[in-house]
Amino acid sequence: MITYSLKRIASGIVLLAVICAAAYALLFVNGSSIARNIVGDQATEAQVEAKSIELGLDQPLPLRFLDWVGSALTGDLGRSWFGTLTVSDALTTRLPVTLALIGVAMLFVTLLATTIGTLAAVKRGWIDRAVQVGAVIGDAIPGFVLAVVLATVFAVQLGWFPAVSSIGPGAGADAWIASLTLPVIAIVLNYVTASAQQIRSAVIQQRDRDFVRTLRSRGLGESEILLKHVLRAAAPAGLTVLSLQFVGLLGGAVILERIFALPGIGQLAVTSTVSGDIPIVMGVVLYTVVIVVIVNLAVDLINGWLNPKVRVS
Amino acid sequence: MTATTNAPASTRRDNVLLRFLRNPLGAIGLAIVLLVVLGAVLAPVLAPFGVTTADIANPFADPGGDHLLGTDSSGRDTWSRLLWASQLTLASAVLCAVVAIAIGLPSGLIAGYFGGPFDGVSSWSANALMSLPAIIVLLSVRSAVGPSVWVTMIVFGILLSPGYYRLTRTAVQSVRNELYVDAARVSGLSDARIISRHIISVVRAPIIIQTALIAGVAIAIQSGLEFLGLGNPSEPTWGAMLSEGFRNIYISPTLLLWPALAIGLTVGAFVLIGNALRDALEDLPKVRASRKATAAVAASGMTAGSLSGTASIAVEPEIAPTVSISTSSDPLPGVGELPAGDHLLEVRDLEIGYPAPDGGLTKVVQGVSFSIDRGEVLSIVGESGSGKSQTAFAVLGLLPSSARIVGGSIVIDDIQTVDTAAERILQKKVAPLRGRRISYIPQEPMSNLDPNYTIGHQLARPMVKLLGISRSEAKRRAIELLERVGIADPQRTFDSYPNEISGGMAQRVLIAGAVSCEPDLIIADEPTTALDVTVQAEVLDLLRRMRDELGVAILLVTHNFGVVADIADRVAVMQRGRLVEEGPVREILRDPRHPYTRTLLGSMLTGREPLTKLTEETTR
């Protein structure tokens, strides 16, 4: 298990390094046009030059990258080019909103999808058909269109939820609940049937396995076999789809935060992208990839814990 | 060769197309996409206003009049802009899919066909790309190169290429070693020709499905980015229109409706097409399965035919009336007279059927009757498909849920387990018997242990539950059992996971599990078939010892007369769902009466060394 974990961690670090290098190269390659963008069209060549030197953009790209990595490792991601905030301050005040949104939504998706998918696999009948139809509908409606409709109907027209979020540092629990309820519903509606469908297939497949019949022949009860053996065997398939949905949501949150006016890192990413505040964009990329690596690592470790075969190989 | 492979392929394709069009959802999806394509192509004709034509005096006009769907905040005609925008939307979906295919398909082909380091590197890259949230990547690309639909869609195509890569790689890997590809290689075709002729045809269908789904995703993402205001403001897009509508939601709620409908319907239509295509392909008759079945039929026909020359001519007419055949039409005279409850297990006139595709019922077991007493070993012999395993699972109450018990009864120690009215086994009756009174030894040892739990847990848990003993007591007994079935290091095996032990050991573990709660009857379904010959003899030895030491009865299902000779007291021969002959093992082996028994005996013993010689002392 220890070698297995170390291998997974090493693989995650390699991924992180590759993505950061690629993103840095992409974002910072064109030093002079960045400086021009900051000082504005009216500035003289000399001003552009001076800004370029001030920001270190005249240095060769690999050197700048190593410099960035060095500071990043000490927690210093630089400063916003257009404001006074440091990148890490800008991100850490907004990260809780995004994480709360995704975390709560995925928690509900996981619970609901597991319950519905298992019921569909075991009971079949109408609930099974409903899951199948629901999965097609869930796939067919783009999440942000659904969110726009929900926001329009329930926040704007009916006024059941605030149309503009009131959460921020120091906001009370009721503000969080009021702001997050509708976006969480939008995510759950959009995601739950797809994962329920996957979990259903996995449970059906695992219930057909020989060892399940043998366990029945040993006199164990149906519910014990389902909960302890079948669901455990089906868990890796379920975790895979849920982790893919989680990663998808890190991107999807960008649009959802705009629709529901939530002050998360997605909003920050959009405004920085439009203004060309590249240190912030780079920070968002770094944070996102770190979260992706952590989630994938957690899934790998849970799979290893659930399935002894994975541990050995 | 080309002619023969092409002919069935083209009818197959017609079939898929027909199935696809018959699926109402697929047809609706296709109709919507065709309408959008038509709208995009004919936009210059259909659109009453230009892209940027603004009727400044008339912003937020209601639908009707000059403006079919009203106007936006700058007085631009919504209907016209929807049409113009569909051009860009469709073009970006096409670009995205083309890029994804251009990267994913060749790299998947190369990785799947040649393997090696390219496979390693490309698979790692594919995993890495798939683990990135697309929108974040697209945001950073936008930061670097500015707003451009085309660059965005090329990058998104790269992000989606792993989908094609994985699909192609898996498909190629699965056919690479098929015989016909080998044959093509041997006949001197170059790799490039093999790939283009044989392998592309395999991946074509899944790629079409994937493309339909990806077109939908591309439109959704593109609209999403435009909605965020990251697109080029001079180009009309559905996403930007949605954003405009959302911003002016209080002024003109309908402004939001049209782009939302356009995006929703188009994306949904592509998904529906993809799903309908998948269904159409999956509903095709399972070629592989039917081929296998035909082969089995042919093979069984062959063995019967090869023997008919020697056996049937002289014997069949003569012995037929005297054989003890037990079927529903002709029950054994002796069976009916036995008082019920004298036997440990009594199966009478059992009939099992499965729903057939035509609505009827396919009977797999017909009028089977037999009984077993305590301490007795009855072997049911027959070839695959003779219904012997179905009979055994009926006794255990572990038939698949679609099975129907059409007739007959199963009585285990005075307990009737068949509900004749419901045509099912009564789980309420048989479930409490499982483990305690009847237990089961399966055929494949490895697949019958849960890989996620230790051997020890799987042995001890039923004892804790059924015997009501403590966990530590169950552990002590489990280790004792493991020792008893001849496992050298029982403590280590107890702590092992199934993948850490050999097949022979796993079968011993399963036998230990079967006897753990001291049942009266063990149902063993081909318990030695999956094992090496030397291990087979040891396992039979073990079963015999369990019978002698515990006095347990064994119902042994097998196709192997060597096994029968080795262990059984009585033997019942099954053919095509019927019991054709039954009697003491010595009699049947020496003097088989039914021609089918002779066929089986002939095909199994001729030219082979039996596990145990049929001498007086062993058949005793």
TrEMBL record, chain A:
Q: What is the lineage of its organism?
A: Bacteria, Bacillati, Actinomycetota, Actinomycetes, Micrococcales
Name of the molecule in the record: ABC transporter permease
Q: Name one GO biological process term.
A: transmembrane transport
Alphabetized CDD domains for the sequence: TM_PBP2 (cd06261)
Q: Which organism is it from?
A: Labedella endophytica
**Where is this chain primarily localised?**
membrane
Family per UniProt?
Belongs to the binding-protein-dependent transport system permease family.
GO cellular component terms listed in the entry, alphabetical order: plasma membrane
Q: Which residues form the ABC transmembrane type-1 domain?
A: 95-303
| InterPro entries membership | BPD_transp_1_N, MetI-like, MetI-like_sf
Give the location in the cell: Cell membrane
**Where are the bilayer-spanning segments?**
97-122, 143-163, 175-192, 237-260, 280-299
Q: Which PANTHER family match?
A: DIPEPTIDE TRANSPORT SYSTEM PERMEASE PROTEIN DPPB-RELATED, PEPTIDE ABC TRANSPORTER PERMEASE PROTEIN
A Pfam family this chain is assigned to: BPD_transp_1_N
Entry superkingdom: Bacteria
List where this protein forms a coiled coil.
none
Q: Which UniProt keywords apply?
A: Cell membrane, Membrane, Transmembrane, Transmembrane helix, Transport
Q: How does it sit in the membrane?
A: Multi-pass membrane protein
From TrEMBL, chain B:
User: GO biological process: any one?
Assistant: peptide transport
Keyword Glycosyltransferase carried by entry: no
Give the residues annotated as coiled coil.
none
The record's section on PROSITE patterns has: ABC_TM1, ABC_TRANSPORTER_1, ABC_TRANSPORTER_2
GO cellular component terms, semicolon-separated: plasma membrane
Membrane spanning residue stretches: 25-47, 88-114, 134-160, 207-230, 250-273, 293-315
**One Gene Ontology molecular-function label:** ATP binding
Q: Where is the ABC transmembrane type-1 domain?
A: 86-278
User: Ranges for the ABC transporter domain?
Assistant: 347-601
Name the UniProt record assigns to this protein: Dipeptide/oligopeptide/nickel ABC transporter permease/ATP-binding protein
